[in-house]
Amino acid sequence: MSITKRFWISLIFSLPMLANMILMPFGWMLPGGNWTQLILTTVIMVISARPFWQSAWASFTKHHSNMDTLVAIGTVTAYVYSIYAMVTKQPVFFESAAFVTTFVLLGQVFEERMRNNASNAVEKLVDLQAKDAEVMRDGKLVKIPLSDVVVGDIIRVKPGQKIAVDGMITEGTSTIDESMVTGESMPVSKKTGDKVIGSTINSNGTFMFKAEKVGDDTMLSQIVELVKKAQNSHAPIQNLTDKVSDIFVPAVLIIAILTFVVWYVLLGASVASSLIFAVAVVVIACPCALGLATPTALMVGTGRSAKMGILIKNGEVLEAVNDIKSVVFDKTGTITVGKPEVTDIVGNEKAVLKVATGLEQSSEHPLASAIVKKAEENNVSVPKVSQFKAIEGKGVSALIDDKESFVGNDKLLDDVKIDAKLEQQVIKLQEEAKTVVFVGVENKIIGLIAIQDAPKETSKEAIADLKARGLKTVMLTGDNKRVADAVAKQVGIDSVIADVLPSDKADHVKALQQDGKVAFVGDGINDAPALTVADVGIAMGSGTDIAIESGGIVLVKNDLRDVDRALALSKKTFNRIKLNLFWAFIYNILGIPVAAGIFYGIGLTLSPELAGLAMAFSSLSVVTSSMLLNKAKITSKAKFA
Amino acid sequence: MVKILVLIVGLAIIGFIGWWFFGKHEVAEISADVSDKGQSIDVEVNGGYSPETVVLKKGVPATLNFTRKDKSSCLDRVVFSDFGINQALPINEKQEIKIDTTKAGEYQWACGMDMFHGKLIIK
What we know:
The complex is a heterodimer of chains A (about 650) and B (about 120). Helices cover about 50% and strands about 20% of the residues of chain A. At the A-B interface, helix 3, helix 5, helix 8, helix 9 and helix 11 of A face helix 1 and strand 7 of B.
């Protein structure tokens, strides 16, 4: 029988006894007196309360105990004693057993509903998926179920349709609403060659795209997997409740026995009133509130952040965010757009570009692609290159037309000299936040290429938000000091650590950890060690897989302002966990002594019925408080400043 | 006289509770049956989990079959926090839970309220 049915039966059979209790002072009595009460309560005990005993007994045989143990012992004690009292013509309290059962079940009905709501977020995400897709098969478009789509399929998407899987547009243009996956509310325009994400909604154009990821590999599936793991993860703060819950119920039983013994033996109270105190103790104690405090808040908090495009991987990260003192940023791709462009070329443009493209052709460095792109625009042909060598942290060299040629950053200047006039130009360009690349042939610099990677529009606001939160902001970059300083000034970062070799990033994070916990925000393969070392690693969603793997928080939207939102949400969730635990503990710590009759002297006592009601609402209030996290305001502090 | 008797009985019950719940008691530990298709094990949920400790072979696909016989809402979900699994257990229905056994180690599982625990050993 379901909990809801058990509750209704219990309620209906309790009502006559409630009427009896309320109307007694007015001279109305339940017809049949104690006999009616006995019958009503017996029905409740047999139908509604029996599962409590069954569960309590099953756990008892395994040397365990749970909330049901307490409810079962409390109600059975009241019931059995009342029968004894009836036989010996003493006052009975059948209604205690009945009401406690009703209230506890009421609490469970609500709680079950709320817990299901709290865990629904993930199922809603999965429901976002398209059900079918129009796929090109044998030269014809056919509608097939989503599960039959394979990698390489060409799929047509009409206006208003959902995109089935992840892929790349092969034909057509459109704007796409990606809010369900990225949380970004503005529609994004896409053209041939752009990536599309499964489960997002196509708004106005019709286009064809090639499926690249299907099934469990799609971005949505990955997000769902991540959120599921996060929602069920363990927060370190839970270790405390784990320990408490192991000993909680037996401890309460011992306290209840002591209560009875003290009242009956030492204080000389009657068996009935001593027993009432003991029953109240058993009934009011609620281990569930303690157990529910952390998981429910974690579930709602991580679910809500996922909707905003912020994936928090587990409870540990959430807890670590609380003590963060400084936030360290990688520059390229994190603070800046990550798409550098060539702005100036000093020297013979054609010759400089030719050497540079030759050397950078096969490099994956973002600066290299800027140079190659510029060369393509200017129709500069790529020369033959041999004996390619990388100079770590400095640049590359190779033979072009039998001449030793090189491209690199200013660390190359340790080996090659430049004249004063050129040096002036270098400084001027760097102060404009442009990265300068030196191009040389046979130990002589033949020219400079200035490349600029503009900061993201939102970076400045993002940094201001974090500073308003009282956090120190640091930029960590392999770039030249002057360029780094110029970018830092533009976005308002406090301090800059420049000229860092990729392999040293993690060491710098470690050094910063001396002054308190550090969050690191990055996106590249070279950021992965730093993301792992940092107390909280925050990876940009556009970043490399390895960065996303290493980070504890992933920002799907690539919006730097989400760093602040992620911190705010984590803090809110963690504070809610603490609040829940506080109330759950306080409730038990205050409730048990009151129920035991310690404050009897000042007239403060608790009947078993009220204890049952309080118990039902304690776990309910914890779940409600967690659900309220969905409504909590997430605002940046800078807006108020 | 009655009071002294009550006192003695009370203390005796306290002693029993202490021994029964806090004393050392053997925990059922069972290794899964390995067949061609994989390994599987049945776990009964009734006032806790039996067996409470499950040993799985590393690298062999594993299925745990949970059947809840207990009406308590405490046990209506089973959570494997390391695997991101949070499975509802409808009463008297066998629920298959697939476990990824690629990484050896000891993992905890718990009921939805974190009151009952079980242990999974992959080796």
